[in-house]
Design goal:
This protein is mainly alpha-helical. It has nine helices and three strands, in the order H-E-H-H-E-E-H-H-H-H-H-H.
């Protein structure tokens, strides 16, 4: 079962959701589907640990996900969406798609790690824009830990910290990927690094050379 979330963490989750929707709208999205909100926040946590293994992960401290057929599910994300919608901080513009509401969420910029998470979610949206949500969803459901929970019909929490199984899989190919880049591996920014990394991984998946 998912761990209960303390009241002092919920404002962080609400702030992340509003920030995510705001960022999506700023790059031309019509809005963000409810299942996509959980998927993107899940990816943000896993990929932050992948990219910054030597840093504290602000996402893993706030989020608890379990298995659902549509993707990673969080009770806290679900209840936060309901809270934000009912208070008009976000608005359902059509079936299951949310945009910003008429009320700005107060004090959002003062939330812990707000700017760090905002910039990282911007990077995740860049990757989504490069490959499309369908491609990233393919990555999510290939997560070995996620697949194992699905097959055994488990509802236990999925780890999004350093012990995440998908993260371990990604790290198996990190050395060979960086070898293919040569000196560029240390020179490119996070956007380009992840773009090239997913290109590398997905090309091998399509060729049947690796299985995630």
């Amino acid at each position: 079962m998912q761990k209960p979330t303390s009241d002092d963490v919920r404002p962080n989750i609400r702030g992340d959701i509003v920030t995510l929707i705001d960022l999506a709208l700023s790059i031309g999205w019509e809005g963000v589907r409810e299942p996509s909100i959980s998927r993107i926040l899940y990816l943000a946590g896993v990929l932050y640990s992948f990219m910054y293994s030597d840093k504290r992960n602000p996402f893993s401290e706030h989020y608890h996900f379990s298995v659902e057929p549509t993707g990673p599910y969080s009770n806290d994300v679900k209840s936060s969406i309901t809270f934000l919608d009912s208070n008009e901080y976000i608005s359902r513009i059509k079936e299951n798609i949310y945009a910003l509401g008429t009320n700005p969420l107060p004090h959002i910029s003062t939330l812990p790690d707000h700017e760090i998470k905002k910039q990282w979610m911007k990077t995740i949206l860049y990757i989504l824009g490069t490959y499309g949500e369908g491609k990233i969803y393919e990555f999510v459901i290939r997560d070995p830990q996620y697949q194992d929970n699905m097959e055994r019909n488990l509802i236990s929490e999925i780890n999004i910290g350093p012990d995440n199984e998908s993260l371990r899989t990604l790290n198996q190919f990190k050395s060979s990927f960086e070898e293919s880049l040569g000196t560029k591996a240390k020179q490119i920014d996070a956007n380009k690094y992840l773009e090239l990394y997913f290109e590398y991984v997905f090309s091998k998946v399509l060729k049947g050379e690796i299985k995630l």
